[in-house]
Design brief:
Layout: H1 13-16, E1 34-35, E2 49-55, E3 67-69, E4 72-76, E5 82-86, E6 92-96, E7 110-113, E8 124-130, E9 133-138, E10 153-155, E11 176-178, E12 181-184, E13 199-203, E14 209-213, H2 231-234, E15 236-237, E16 245-247, E17 252-256, E18 260-261, E19 278-283, E20 289-294, E21 310-316, E22 319-327, E23 333-337, E24 347-351, E25 365-369, H3 390-400, E26 418-420, E27 434-436, E28 441-447, E29 451-453, E30 455-457, H4 465-473, H5 475-478, H6 501-510, H7 523-534, H8 544-553, E31 561-563, E32 567-568, E33 583-589, E34 594-600, H9 605-608, E35 624-626, E36 630-633, E37 641-646, E38 652-657, E39 667-671, E40 674-681, E41 694-699
Parallel strand pairs: 1-35
Antiparallel strand pairs: 2-41, 3-4, 4-5, 5-6, 7-8, 8-9, 9-10, 11-12, 12-13, 13-14, 15-18, 16-17, 17-19, 19-20, 21-22, 22-23, 24-25, 26-29, 27-28, 28-33, 29-32, 30-31, 33-34, 35-36, 36-37, 37-38, 39-40, 40-41
Helix pairs in contact: 4-7, 6-7
Length: 705
């Protein structure tokens, strides 16, 4: 008998065998990235071959981890069409298109079954976010369930604040299921105007809002005093974009949140800014706060909590403790008792410098766990600069002397760029971590490259309307001079040679990839922004007088400082200007806080051909761990490899080359008596390399055990 598991359901080993054949939720049963399957194991993993592939025939990349229930695999294409496949053969069963031309990232789906109806025709649903909508599909047919919301979908821009049609948000990670609720977060703009990051629970059958938790507290709510008194009316962010975890037995949902808008200058949100950058434990039935811990106070570095928390049971001080682990962009692991929120390892508050710019008040201290040690390097020093070639080293040294490098949580100034190490994406990122439920060992991959940040003062005296809006909304990613920071943020200079004006309007209005929609801007500002971007910043029909009027009347354009753009600390050939490893895979024993092993993850093929191997590279997407003694991970940006490691030693046991980089988290399951491991191969993280959307499933040959 199969027992349906909800996304994020707590993993209880005694009952795990019932669902071990499946991968029923984003992150697997319990969100642990763990499977009890062991047909593929240390002894035979070298024999893995391609069992089937499914080519979506779309470009754009994939970050999706599919789910597998009762022999059916559900996934998402780069354009955010939803499909179902026979999990044993890869044969397409159905495909759903919402009529919205979506773009990555879209990292997964949710499955729900009516547990009160055990007959074969019981209500089974796929819940999926596409753009700003959440859809409910019949899991058997892919058809919309018309009784859910408005004809099969709910508009998540509603029930927030003000005119819902001017809200900008998209769903990037799937919601978690608790009983008949789906609990959702969303991605929002990094700058104002932005909606508040309310955590909301909807009735799965009807789509009606059941509860909402204000991450920017309203008057009378806990944490209200940590913001300016009217911040709840205008501030935004403090949202959950990375996903959540549910302890179904206790009825608790664990919600990691991101920074408040705007990311890097917070003069309009002075205070600690609860519940931004926090792990929040909520009553899953009602949305009431049970406990919380703020990982970053008054965030000025965009140090979002980047991944779903991981539920684990550890043995500590002679006791068995149900705990929740949260990885961070700064490279730390925080471990808490699930019920009370008490840290398993002591947390100390370190002192940090004050902000050097007017109007800003940085937090005097920030919390750091005493164990485990950080899994990413914390401070860039001169002895860490690249020695790949003498020329690369000299260039790195010259650039380093221009920078301020003092470690974590140093507020940005407007004179010298400040080093972020690890960079803005982490450290840990959205792929999440895996935990071996048998041993309590956590496996987490990490980026270990440096970036830089700098503030720029807004003068408001000589800018046109278009440039004023661009600097407030777009320069944070694309830079003042429109040069971007490839591959994450492409340059906008020369955009007229790559896109029509209508395409630019479409992108700005609806967003694309990591870029949010700018539908929240007033029409005149939006129009001015279109003209400015379309012209490459070379012309703007607005006048200085108009600029002064707009900057004095619109809250979103008033900050005294803006972020001048993401800088990449790279050598003349585009490689990281720090010594390897540039990416790692780590095994951390959460019982003791000690490392089992740490290895570089990934390489550049062109450097490897010259003898510079195992450098590690930037990597996006997470690992899974199995009872067969294996850790599977792709993630690496440049070598397109999919690898299996011995979970006890970190020894590489198997690798293969995918059609594109596997910037996603794999899944494993059993179908027709065979164990499969599947990964979404799409690339899209490296601007100079092709992207696509191919799911590749591996299995042992049928005549081998």
């Amino acid at each position: 008998m199969k027992i349906p598991f909800a996304i994020g359901a707590v993993l209880i080993l005694a009952g795990y065998a019932a669902s071990q054949n499946e991968w029923p939720a984003y992150g697997g049963a319990g969100g642990t990235h763990y499977s009890a399957l062991e047909k593929i194991n240390r002894g035979n993993v070298r024999n893995l071959t391609v069992a089937w592939t499914y080519d979506t025939k779309e470009e754009g990349g994939l970050e999706t981890s599919p789910i597998i229930v009762d022999g059916i695999l559900y996934g998402i294409t780069p354009a955010q069409k939803v499909f179902a496949l026979d999990a044993a053969t890869g044969k397409e069963l159905w495909k759903f298109g919402a009529g919205i031309e979506g773009g990555q990232p879209n990292r997964g789906l949710s499955f729900w079954e009516d547990k009160n109806n055990r007959n074969p025709q019981s209500d089974r649903r796929i819940l999926v976010g596409i753009g700003n909508f959440e859809y409910a599909l019949d899991a058997r047919t892919g058809r919309l369930i018309a009784s859910f919301g408005d004809g099969g979908r709910i508009d998540l821009r509603k029930d927030l604040r003000g005119d819902y049609e001017r809200q900008s948000l998209v769903v990037t990670s799937p919601g978690v299921i608790y009983k008949d609720l789906i609990i959702l977060g969303e991605r929002e703009p990094e700058t104002l105007p932005a909606p508040p990051g309310d955590i909301r629970a909807y009735d799965i059958r009807t789509g009606k809002l059941r509860w909402s938790f204000h991450t920017i507290p309203h008057p009378g709510e806990f944490g209200y005093e940590t913001w300016p008194k009217d911040a709840w009316r205008y501030s935004g962010g403090a949202n959950n974009w990375a996903g959540m975890a549910v302890d179904e037995k206790r009825g608790i949902v664990y919600v990691p949140t991101g920074s408040a808008a705007s990311d890097f200058y917070g003069a309009d949100r002075l205070g600690d800014d609860l519940f931004a950058d926090s792990l929040i434990a909520l009553n899953a039935e009602t949305g009431e706060r049970i406990w919380h811990f703020q990982v970053v106070k008054h965030d000025l570095w965009d140090r979002d909590l980047p991944s779903p928390p991981t539920l684990v049971t550890v043995k500590h001080d002679g006791r068995s403790i149900d705990a929740v682990a949260q990885t961070t962009k700064s490279g730390h692991v925080f471990l808490f008792d699930r019920t009370r929120g008490q840290p398993i390892f002591p947390i100390e508050y370190a002192k940090y410098p004050s902000s050097p710019v007017a109007g800003e008040q940085a937090a005097a201290t920030q919390p750091l766990p005493t164990k485990p040690a950080p899994f990413a390097r914390q401070r860039l020093t001169v002895d860490m600069l690249t020695k790949r070639t003498p020329a690369a080293h000299e260039r790195a040294l010259a650039e380093f002397r221009k920078l301020r490098s003092e470690g974590q949580f140093v507020p940005f100034g407007d004179e010298r760029p400040t080093v972020m190490f690890p960079g803005f994406d982490g450290g840990a990122e959205w792929g999440g971590s895996a935990v071996d439920v048998e041993t309590g060992v956590l496996y987490v991959n990490s980026n270990d490259v440096a970036m830089t940040g700098l503030l720029a003062k807004n003068t408001g005296q000589e800018e046109s309307v278009g440039r004023t809006v661009y600097l407030s909304q777009c320069s944070v990613c694309h830079g003042d001079a429109m040069n971007g920071s490839p591959p994450q943020f492409p340059p906008l200079s020369g955009i007229a040679q790559r896109h029509t004006r209508e395409e630019v309007v479409e992108i700005l209005e609806h967003g694309r990839g990591r870029m949010p929609a700018f539908s929240s801007l007033p029409f005149d500002q939006f129009s001015a922004l279109v003209e400015y971007v379309w012209s490459g910043g070379k012309s703007d029909h607005s006048t200085t007088k108009e600029s002064k009027e707009i900057s004095s009347s619109d809250t979103a354009l008033k900050p005294a400082y803006r972020f001048a753009g993401y800088g990449r600390f790279i050598d003349p050939d585009g490689y990281p200007a720090v010594e390897p490893p540039w990416g790692t895979l780590n095994a951390i024993d959460l019982n003791t806080g000690e490392y089992r092993w740490k290895i570089p993850l990934g390489e550049y093929p062109e450097l490897a051909a010259k003898g510079m191997k195992n450098t590690g590279t930037e990597n996006y997407g997470g690992p899974i761990v199995t009872a067969g003694g294996l850790v599977f991970i792709a993630a690496t940006n440049f070598d397109n490899k999919f690898r299996a490691f011995d979970k006890d030693t970190g020894k590489l046991l198997w690798e293969t080359t995918l059609p594109f980089a596997g910037n996603a988290t794999p899944a494993t399951y059993e179908a027709s008596g065979r164990q499969f491991v599947v990964i979404a191969s799409g690339g899209g993280k490296a601007a100079d390399r092709p992207s696509g959307g191919i799911y590749v499933a591996f299995a042992l040959p049928e005549n081998k055990n």
